Amino acid sequence: MSFETLGLSKELLKAIKEQGYDKPTPIQKQAIPVILEKKDVLAGAQTGTGKTAGFTLPMLELLHRAKPTKGHHVKALILTPTRELAAQVGESVELYGKHLPFKSTVIFGGVKINPQITKLKNGVDIVIATPGRLLDHLSQKTIDLSHVSFLILDEADRMLDMGFINDIKKILAILPKQRQNLLFSATYSDEIKKLSDRLLNAPTLIEVARANISSEIVKQTIYLVDCERKRELLTHLINEGKWQQVLVFTRTKHGANRLSAQLEKDGITSAAIHGNKSQNARTKALDDFKKGEVRVLVATDIAARGIDIDQLPHVVNFELPNVSEDYVHRIGRTGRAGNEGEAISLVCVDEHEFLANIEKLIKKDIQKIALKGFKPDPSIKAVPVSMGGNRGGNRGGAAKPKGAGGGGRPSNRPRTSQKPNAGRPQR
Question: Which among 264, 269, 255, 263 has a CA at the least distance from the CA of 232?
Fold first, then answer.
C-alpha cells in the first residue's frame, strides 16, 4: 500500500515525498482512512510507530477539504504531555502542511508567554499545546477555542500519569460539543478507559501491536553490577563499544545531573535533560545530541517523552524504572523504523524485584551478564530506595518499592532529598 491509496491530497503527497517516505506504517494504514471518515478513534500505539503522521496527515486533509472561512481560527487542537513532544508534533504539522495555507503554533510553559500571545492574535488554524500553558492562555482570554472541530490527545496515558486529568477536564468543558476526537495512548489503563468513555463518541479501536510487548528487534541485555560501580561500568561499555550516541535513563533529576557530570570527568561528552532544566537548555541538549556533539544524553522518563531519533543505536537503563511499563517506553527509543537497537540495563541487587516485574510484563527472560571485573559482591544486601521526585505521582498507586539508584554500598549510599512535585505538573 502507498500513501496515494489513502485518499490524501496532492499537496500532502508532495510533502510526504519530500520527507522521503513512500509507504505508510501499520498505524498510518489503519488510522488515516478511519479519521478521514470523520470517526472518533481510540488508538493504541507506542512511540516510534509513526503515530504522529497517523493523525497529522488526516487532520490536515480534513481541514483542507472543509469549507474555507475568512481569517484564521483555531480549528484543530493537539494536546501533548511535554514540551519536547509538543515541539516535535508542531514540527510534523509544519513539514506535512508546508504546501497548505494553514498556520500553526506550539504553546507550552518554560518560555515567555508574550510571543505566544502575539502569534495567537495574528490568527492560527492549528494549536499544539501542553495543558497547563493552554489553561494560562484561556484564563487570560488570549486564545479562542470556540471554532475547534478537531481534538487530539497524544500520549494520553502519560498525561494522566503526570496529573493532567483535571486540566484536561477543564479544557474539554470549554470546547464545542460537536467535534472529532482522537485519543492516542501507549497503554490502556482503567483511567484511559474512563477518559475515552467521556471523550469519544462510538470510537473505532485501532491497535498496531499488543500493549506492553517489547520490540523484537531490540536486543535486551542485563549487566549485573554493584550499585556503586554502575557509572564505572557504563564508562567502560561506552569506551569499549566505541558508542557515539547513547540515551541513558536515570530515575531522578538529581541522579541525571550527577551522572552527566561524572561522565564528563571520564572524558565522555554528556548532557542532562529533565523537568528542572530551562526549555532552552533542554532544546540545546537534545539538538547537540542529535548532531553528535554530545555522545550521552542522560534523561528522566518524563523529559525523554517526545525524543524521536530514528536510528538511535543504544539505550541504557542506568537505573530500572519502578513502573514496569516505563521500561517498555524506554527501550522503544531504539530499534525504530526497522533499524536494530540495543537496550542495556545496569542492575544491582536492590533492583531485582523491579527486574522480575519487567520480565513478567514482557513475558521474556532477559539475558544476564556478570562482566569480568564488574561482578557484583554477593555479600551486599538489598536496601530500599529513595525514589526522588522526578515523577508527578506514583503511577498505578504502587507502594514504595525496593531499588537503588547508582549510589554506594548500603552503609554509604547517598539519599536523594528531592520532594515529590507539588501543585500543577510541569507545563
Answer: 263
Q: Quick one: pLDDT at residue 423? A: 38
The three three-digit cell numbers of residue 55, written as one number: 493523525
Angle between helices 51-65 and 26-36 (to 10 degrees): 20
β-pairing, 104-107 vs 270-273, is unpaired
CA neighbours closer than 13 Å in the CB half-sphere of residue 230: 31
Give the residues across from 183 on adjacent strands: 42, 153
Q: Distance of CA 214 to CAs 91, 156, 286, 329, Å?
A: 27, 20, 25, 9
Collect the ranges in the chain with pLDDT lower than 50: 210-213, 388-427
Summarised one tens digit per residue, pLDDT across range 328-339 is 878 877 766 556
Residue 157's φ and ψ, nearest 5 degrees, are -60, -40
Helix (H, G, I), strand (E, B) or coil at 171: helix
**Separation between Cα atoms, residue 228 and residue 242, nearest integer Å:** 23
For residues 298 and 259, the answer to whether their CB atoms sit within 8 Å is: yes
Residue 386 has what pLDDT? 60
The pLDDT value given to residue 100: 95
Domains of the chain: 3-207 (3.40.50.300), 218-397 (3.40.50.300)
Asked whether the beta carbons of 225 and 295 are under 8 A apart, the reply is: no
Residue 400: name the closest of 385, 382, 420, 413 by CA: 385
pLDDT at position 424 is: 40
Q: What pLDDT sits at residue 295?
A: 94
> Alpha-carbon distance 298 to 271, whole Å?
6
Could you give the CA distance from residue 185 to residue 163 in angstroms, rounded to a whole number? 15
If one counts every other C-beta atom within 10 angstroms of the C-beta of residue 377, the result is 11
Q: What is the pTM of this model?
A: 0.61
User: Among candidates 301, 309, 299, 317, which has minimal Cα distance to 339?
Assistant: 309
Q: What's the pLDDT at 310?
A: 62
- Cβ neighbourhood burial of 140 (10 Å; 0-12, 13-18, 19+): exposed
Other CB atoms closer than 10 Å to residue 165's CB: what's the count?
A: 16
